[in-house]
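FIELD: query
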Amino acid sequence: MEILRCEGVKKIYGSGNNQVAALDGIHLSVDKGEFVAITGASGSGKSTLLHILGSVDKPTSGKVVVDGTDLSTLNQTQAAIFRRRKVGLVYQFYNLIPTLSARKNILMPLMLDRRKPSEDYFERIVNALGIQDRLDALPGQLSGGQQQRVAIARSLIYRPALLLADEPTGSLDRKNSREIVDMLKLSNRSLEQTILLITHDERVALEADRIVTLEDGRIVSDQRRR
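FIELD: result
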């Protein structure tokens, strides 16, 4: 089942002779449960695409449909609600609230919606990510790898249609990078989570089922590995 569709997505910055096409006609379809790596050199359009897919930004033209919703129809408030409920975002820097425990950081999206968490699903996530013993700790008391695991758990807690990870291993050492990639693979397989992973690291990209390569705002390669 298709969970994401991009139709001729363009993003233009500037005007006149100063125009720059960050994205230049992106066509992309992703099915539920896929683990897709988006790769490319710096400036290829990876992060711009992620921001548009996550409804953080809007394309200059074209259409993005996520889980049946055309993102262009949403106003700013609707986009924020949609993002909170349907799109999980994991960044290189963890964006945890420093005064809240790991548990409260994970549950924050549900608290904003005044929804009660499923204790079984919460335990399933934190056990899978290996942070069940660190839930009362503040972010400053956690290692970088543990903070990223908390960020991943937060993005999974409301069962998003799509998980977008922007260079999630970029600030981690090799050991922690390996563990985070393993955690993403686990959530993809055991939780059937659809994942788009933005990375410039070829070793990380090779862990995905499909690799989409961008160059100058265009898709130049789309390879299924499994």
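FIELD: remark
The domain at 2-224 is CATH 3.40.50.300 (Rossmann fold).
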